[in-house]
Write a structure and sequence with these properties.
Blueprint (H helix, E strand, L loop, with lengths): L3 H13 L4 E3 L23 H4 L9 E9 L15 E9 L5 H13 L12 E6 L3 H11 L6 E4 L1 H4 E2 L6 E12 L29 E14 L5 E14 H8 L12 H11 L7 H22 L8 H19 L6 H13 L4 H5 L1 H38 L1 H14 L5 H24 L8 H24 L7 H12 L2 E2 L1 H11 L3 H10 L3 E2 L1 H15 L8 H9 L7 E2 L6 E11 L2 E2 L2 E3 L3 E6 L1 E2 L13 E4 L3 E12 L2 E14 L3 E6 L1 H25 L5 E6 L4 E6 L6 H16 L3 E7 L1 H6 L14 E7 L8 E4 L14 E8 L4 E8 H22 L3 H38 L3 E3 L2 E7 L5 H14 L4 E8 L2 E8 L1 H4 L5 H9 L5 E4 L3 E6 L5 H15 L3
Parallel strand pairs: 1-2, 4-5, 10-11, 12-17, 30-31
Antiparallel strand pairs: 2-3, 3-9, 4-7, 6-7, 7-8, 8-9, 13-14, 13-16, 13-21, 15-20, 16-20, 18-19, 18-21, 19-20, 22-23, 23-28, 24-25, 25-26, 27-28, 29-30, 31-32, 32-34, 33-34
Helix pairs in contact: 3-4, 7-10, 8-9, 8-10, 8-12, 9-12, 10-12, 12-15, 12-18, 14-15, 15-16, 17-19, 21-22, 24-25, 25-26
The structure holds zinc ion (2 copies).
One zinc ion binds next to loops.
Length: about 1000
């Protein structure tokens, strides 16, 4: 049988024998392309070659590439769609074109010895309407019957450009015919306009598209204009799973060996058989397909989150769990399915078994989170539904009240209204619960309240909308009420279902069924609309594009082969080959101008692999340029960015280029330090740790990597101490060149796509007597000669940066020394200030803190004691106004609590009293006012008094009749404020 393993190997070997270099599968996470979520086809990792941004390792390549597509997630389960698949392909980068590509494809498809050995009659071919060249080739050279060649337009047989601009061209496809029994049974169509006839793209089940050959013939610019590419390319793609269904004679991909074992393993887990009931089969397929995809995604470092890649992963994990649970599976079942996937695929993808623990841990955590999400979502929905029922019962009164609020008070506070509505409902709910349970009221779950508030907020939005639409007139109130009730009474809105799903991970199916049980409908179209709006923003379709402007800018220089000599030299004689001023080529540049400069050879390292570009000076016979940055905008082109600081520089000048040595060496220490940290992280945390990005500057280094959860202090310390151990081991840093495939075979870590031309550079750190290297990475950066030169490595901190990625920051060498000096200087200062040795400093500061809090308490206690004696003095200041005891004065307390105690103490002595006491604390005046009950009865109110006098201290305040308080910043008004009190009493109470 043609197993998938055999198909993969047959394909790769066939093309290998025909001069193609076999390339390993790249990661599902495209390196260096933030515009692309996932590697979605075989050509994605080769994009820089097609764009001529990098030298390909060979002009003919072949690969079987792991691929993931998000477009069909909701279709998976139907027996046709997949999210994860492998893409077989052969690629020509400016080598062969249409004729050879077709010849190779045909030979492979039909060869019994070396290919698939399919019969000529089972293959139907499609070509682009106007591509006579390809049509003629199939017919004349290959000998396909004209009636087996179908022509299609842009929709089916034209590819690209994948972004705003980029390579584009016609394609030709090979379709396999399962036979007339499998499809619609109709005759073939006569012309492209014949809608009744069958044809290869009929989608009736008779044909499967097996292989797509794309001919990148043109470059299309942003205006849509096409020009012929100088070196046209070929990109082909054949889905491995589809090939399996053809060669194994299964029209359904789930019946092939890709899925048969996974399905039967899951069947014994769930104790049900696959292939009996459509609905159950659907769920089976969702579970195994999604689990397979998850395993590969997590293994490549994707971790569930609420954005980007992590969000897609979370969606498919949750979709799989939901379908699994519907089949009666309980928590953790997905781990077992994942284990089947790992054991089925790890002989081809060794990283799966290496990362097994990590993959299972991630799935387990997500499973747990999903359980919580379902529980929480149900509570929120409960709140949303409850408030609706209350609302429709109480509608007439409530609507009157609140609509009047909105309409009649222009500036109604939205939040305030929401709170009042929520409160209104909760009060009733509590009352009801109490009457049922006989007084016992359990607290409302916090998530129920979230739901209530959310529903109320949505209701208010609707109200406002309707009021605006209806150009509200009081007479319309009745109509408005009806409208609003319709909006909410009998349904959950799409927005709400989306909120539950998007923010709380609550499946829309659950919303639908819980809603139904409460008699509330949900319009799924509305929900889809809300999801669609979200998806638009998440979409990232940009594959190729944008690069042509850069190519154009530097093409005029026509000096693309700059030799980089900076691994050995920091100073180099060179010749000026290109000068750009304001983006245009010029013959010479003069003092003050900011320029771009190209040399025939240079010691300046161009930014790459996270390492910053070099700076320094370029000195000519008549002038000097200071270089601020060095970049490589195109393969083999190195551009220096700088400013002429004296004289001038001409084309063909002989110059001396000198790199800022100190800066370069500090950078090298940090770069080697980054490799040491990477290896240490993998040793301490596990092999799932992968570089996701880095910044190597002279002052510090930053390293981003995949890992779940924050590092513990112990883990951080282990990483730091292992790193420093390896520094002290003084491991040799060795560099050699080899092919990409060979390097990966040796176990080198690659940040895929970052740098790999014909030859790759491998940086190794090993002890002479150890069995394997401590660190082995593909890297184009500059390094020290032995790890001892890195100097001490200090971790500055660790943090999460989203998407399941963590970030470490560290310093080495000079930076570490500076950090040490800074910190010990600080310690020294502190120890001088407190007059103790370093070792005693902590004790001393602890003592100070304790002493301080003790003293604060002491002060409070003594103030309380003073209240008594102080009160005696204050009593003497009481005056009589219309027969009433009035005290209005400033006192010596330090806080408002003591002030109140003073007030209370005075009230206790004088059974009838109006008092206002004031203090100034932190440049703020504080006032309290008290009125004894007998005087409240006479019409004096503490709240009113305080309100009136607070104006004079520029503040406001409030309280009740017996006690009130105020504060204000205008301390200078305090005297006036206090002097007002007797006058107020005089005014309010007649003698
Ligand atoms: Zn058909
Ligand atoms: Zn590196």
């Amino acid at each position: 049988m043609f197993t998938t393993d055999k198909i993969r190997e047959t394909f790769l070997r066939f093309f290998e024998r025909r001069g193609h270099l076999r390339m390993p599968s790249a990661s599902l996470v495209p390196a260096g392309d933030p515009t692309l979520l996932f590697t979605s086809a075989g050509m994605v990792p080769f994009k820089p070659f097609f764009m001529a941004e990098q030298q390909p390792p060979a002009e003919r390549l072949t690969s079987s590439q792991k691929s993931f597509r998000t477009t069909d997630i909701d279709e998976v389960g139907d027996g046709i769609h997949l999210t994860f698949f492998e893409m077989l392909g052969n690629f020509s980068i400016g080598d062969y074109f249409k004729d050879e590509a077709i010849r190779l494809a045909w030979e492979f498809i039909t060869s019994v010895e070396e290919g698939f050995g399919l019969s000529k009659n089972s293959i139907f071919v499609t070509v682009y309407l106007e591509d006579e060249e390809t049509y003629g080739f199939w017919k004349e050279e290959i000998g396909i019957e004209g009636c087996n060649i179908f022509r299609y337009g842009d929709e089916d047989n034209w590819w690209g450009p994948a972004g705003e601009e980029g390579p584009t061209g016609p394609c030709t496809e090979l379709h396999f015919d399962f036979g007339i029994a499998f499809g619609c049974g109709r005759d073939f169509r006569k012309t492209t306009l014949d809608v009744n006839g069958c044809h290869p793209n009929h989608n009736c089940g008779r044909f499967v598209e097996l292989w797509n050959l794309v001919f990148m013939q043109y470059y299309q610019n942003t205006q849509g204009e096409r020009t012929l590419l100088k070196k046209p390319c070929v990109d082909t793609g054949m889905g491995l799973e589809r090939a399996a269904s053809v060669l194994q004679g299964k029209s359904n991909v789930y019946d092939t060996d890709v899925f048969s074992k996974l399905l039967s393993d899951f069947g014994s887990m769930v104790e049900k058989d696959y292939g009996i009931n459509d609905e159950i089969d659907y769920a089976f397929r969702v579970v195994v397909e999604h689990t397979r995809a998850c395993v590969f995604l997590i293994s490549d470092g994707v971790i569930p989150s609420n954005e980007g890649r992590g969000y897609v992963l979370r969606r498919i994990i949750r979709r799989a769990i939901r379908y699994g649970r519907n089949l009666g599976m309980t928590e953790g079942f997905m781990l077992k399915v994942a284990d089947s996937v790992i054991s089925q695929s790890s002989h081809v993808y060794g990283e799966l078994s290496d990362n097994r623990q990590f993959i299972l841990k991630v799935l387990d955590r997500e499973d747990e989170k999903f359980g919580q999400a379902v529980e929480r979502g149900a509570l929120i929905l409960n709140g949303m539904i409850g408030v609706r029922h209350w609302y429709s019962v109480n509608a007439p009164a409530v609507v009157d009240m609140y609509i009047k609020d909105i309409v009649e008070k222009d500036s109604i506070n939205n939040q305030d209204l929401i709170l009042r509505l929520v409160r209104g409902y909760l009060d009733q709910r509590i009352e009801q619960t109490a009457s049922i349970s006989g007084g016992e009221v359990p607290p409302i779950e916090p998530f129920v309240e979230v739901g209530i508030e959310h529903a109320v907020r949505k209701m208010l939005e609707q109200w406002r909308l309707l009021i605006n639409q209806a150009a509200y007139d009081k007479a319309d109130l009745l109509m408005l009420k009806t409208l609003i009730l319709e909006q909410f009474e009998n349904r959950i809105t799409g927005d709400e279902a989306f909120y539950l799903w998007d923010t709380h991970g609550f499946p829309v199916e659950e919303t639908l069924s819980i809603g139904k049980a409460s008699g509330l409908g949900l319009n799924l179209e509305e929900f889809d609309k809300a999801v669609g709006a979200h998806r638009e923003t998440a979409k990232a379709a940009h594959i190729i594009g944008g690069g042509m402007a850069i190519v154009d800018k530097y093409a005029v220089l026509d000096h693309k082969n700059v030799t980089f000599v900076g691994y050995e030299a920091l100073k180099q004689d060179a010749i000026v080959l290109g000068l750009l001023y304001e983006n245009k080529p010029v013959e010479n540049v003069s003092c003050g101008q900011k320029i771009e400069l190209v040399l025939n050879q240079t010691p300046f390292y161009p930014e790459g692999g996270g390492q910053v570009g070099d700076t320094g000076f370029i000195e000519g016979p008549n002038g000097v340029v200071q270089i601020f940055d060095t970049q490589s905008p195109l393969a083999s082109l190195i551009v220096h960015y700088g400013q002429v600081i004296s004289g001038d520089i001409c084309l063909n000048d002989e110059v001396i280029a000198t790199v800022d040595m100190r800066r370069r060496i500090d950078t090298a220490r940090n770069h080697s330090g980054t490799h040491i940290l990477h290896a240490s992280l993998r040793e301490v945390l596990g092999l799932h740790v992968r570089q996701a990005g880095s910044l190597v500057a002279p002052e510090r280094l930053r390293f981003d990597y995949s890992h779940v959860g924050p590092l513990t202090n112990e883990e951080l310390m282990s990483v730091q101490s292992l790193s420093n151990e390896r520094v002290r081991d003084d491991l040799k840093v060795m560099v050699h060149e080899t092919t990409y495939a060979e390097a990966i075979k040796q176990g080198a870590l690659a940040f895929f796509g970052d740098k790999y031309g014909e030859k790759v550079r491998v940086v190794e750190m090993s002890a002479s007597n150890s069995s394997g290297p401590f660190s082995l990475e593909l890297c184009g950066g500059t390094h020290v000669h032995a790890t001892g030169q890195v100097g001490p490595i200090f971790l500055l901190g660790e943090s999460g940066i989203g998407g399941g990625m963590r970030r470490l920051e560290a310093v080495t060498g000079f930076g570490a020394e500076r950090l040490f000096v800074e910190r010990s200087t600080l310690l020294e200062k502190l120890s001088n200030r407190f007059d103790v040795p370093h070792s005693e400093l902590e004790n001393r500061l602890n003592n100070f803190v304790e002493e301080l809090s003790f003293l604060r308490k002491e002060i409070a206690v003594s103030e309380q004691r003073n209240v008594v004696s102080e009160a005696d003095k204050l009593v003497e200041s009481i005056i009589q106004v219309n027969g009433i005891n009035v005290l209005s004065t400033r006192c010596n307390m330090t806080n408002v609590d003591s002030l109140r105690q003073m007030g209370d103490s005075l009230k206790n002595r004088m059974s009838s009293l109006v008092l206002v006491l004031a203090i100034i604390v932190n440049e703020k005046a504080l006032l309290i006012s008290m009125v004894t009950p007998d005087l409240v009865a006479k019409g004096l109110k503490a709240g009113q008094i305080i309100k009136e006098i607070a104006q004079h201290i520029g503040g406001s305040g409030g309280g009740n009749a017996e006690l009130a308080q105020a504060g204000g910043k205008r301390t200078e008004g305090l005297g006036t404020a206090l002097s007002l009190v007797p006058k107020i009493v005089e005014r309010e109470v007649n003698p």
